[in-house]
## 1
Amino acid sequence: MVCDGYTEIWDLKSGELLKLDGARGTTLRVTRGTLWLTQEHDTRDFVLTAGDVYTIDRGGMTLVEAQSNASVCVLARYVDAVRVPTSRETWVSRLRHWVPSVAPTLERRRVPYF
């Protein structure tokens, strides 16, 4: 199997966000999909695709977001991963909810034209 020897396997949906606290030394191996990763006090961001392996080199907070459905093999002594609920509502669906709330104010009044 692809993840032999790893301690955990994460299956992430597109847009799912994980907060890893104190994950220094944790190794992530992406087996499917694309991840975006950023670390506290680090100006670099990383985009990892299938086949990439990355070891977190800083303490503090690390954010990992799935850019597409992804599977990740995790090698760590202990990882405190918190899944952050995300609302990936598109602007179209937001507009669809907003328009009925303002529709009464958008009604045109008939004015005689001479």
Note: Helices lie at 91-106.
## 2
Amino acid sequence: MIKGTIILESLHEDASLTGFTFSVREIGRGRPRLSERQLEANFPDVWSAIEFELEGERAGELVEALSKALNPGWYANFSTDTETFIVFPGRTFRYPRRDHDGRAEAQAYGRTLGIPDHQLDWTE
């Protein structure tokens, strides 16, 4: 079972995640605290988050689809029972759940994109 979160505003306008049957666990909207870089890049001030589940062993396919669908400066995250996946446009981090070094490496990369620490807070 795959569980994760996608921020709808992170997807570019012609993005499509077709061929997946997502079960939506929760949909929420909120006003995140944006970094200076995000403000300069005109990130939206309200974000829509979809928490989802996906049956089966389709992590590789989901990584590929998200990597192509995400706008620069964004990421999506999901996990299986044993692994965590952090997907940035064109780059993915995959590590055993609760692996401190894997998490730290993904967070460090996110910082290079201007993502503030308080947004690099995915659950595992």
Note: Residues 100-112 form the longest helix (13 residues).
## 3
Amino acid sequence: MIRTEKDKQCLTFTSKPLEKDTEITGHPIVHMYVSSTAADGDFFVYFEDVDSAGTAYYVTEGMLRAGFARLVPQEDMLPADSEIDVKPDLPYHGFKAADYDEGVFAKGKVKELVIDLFPTSWVFKKGHRYRVSIASADYPTFQLNPKLSPNNKPVDDGNTVPTVTIHHGKKHLSRIELPVVPPKPRHPKERHECGEHN
């Protein structure tokens, strides 16, 4: 899927061109330090491959309703007597009413959102770039946040249109963690010598 035009509606962060082919296999994990003029919000994060011509290709995505930002131990997601050890160790968010914070951004709070993206396996070619593209909605694929759009309409007088800020720097280290597969070591080529046949 090509996302070049969609990216014009999003906040994007694009890397420098890669110096070599790079394989990403697993779950990319995004850490974003976010504040908003609204108390809550939805976040959709897309990870993309941008070629040398500037065309952006969809690789994977993840999403989070910010009210569920608090991470919970993996054990809390399993039955109490479970002996299952789930791998890899990913960020887990609650799903119960008690886990939800309706005022996650209230009073100007800056909140870290940790979002694991769907697993992927993709080789980024030399000269291509990584891109992280962030949106606050994916309508009509997903319903709009009911606190911000009670009528689920993109254009409606009853909507709240917040200003969202992604913070970055030493204090707020917004970033993406990539499961890079190390290149296989090169083995010396085997030499085959042929003798004379009589």
Note: The domain at 6-181 is CATH 2.60.120.260 (Jelly Rolls).
## 4
Amino acid sequence: MIEFPPMPKIARLSRLCTITEKIDGTNGSIYISEDASEFLVGSKSRWITPAQDNFGFARWAYTHEDELRTLGPGHHFGEWWGLGIQRGYGQKEKRFSLFNTYRWSDVLGARPACCSVVPILYEGLFDSFAVATTLAMLQADGSHAAPGFMKPEGVVIYHQAAKQYFKKTILNDEKPKNSKEE
């Protein structure tokens, strides 16, 4: 007889969420093994090296390896953005902003000086009005990651109960998509 598959728990929608600015760059990741013997650099879908790089992220990461190792064991995701990447944000350099706002907030822990954290725009109970209001504020005020840049991409919503990220962009969310995600 086949094993019975139980219905998975369903997260309650009206739970805590964190809304951050969605920075238009390219995904970057740093992996440090539990015993710290491995230091790997990745893009959204593959490991990269300075020889097979992604907008110079691997070169930058290996240059800052000692500092980045202080992130500790695990997989650390962020956005590599700025000069020459997507919107550029009027920057004269590239930056790496970590996604985990809880772990790397200014209040909780020291992070490497070479890293920033995506800006938190709202924390509280999830509801669609909070998302719409935050998105409208971002559109009116401009980027919080790069003050003065008036064409931010959108927001990322992290729903704590579901442990899931969602994105909402300023220009593209109302257009129907074909069968593929962005």
Note: The chain has a mean pLDDT of 91.
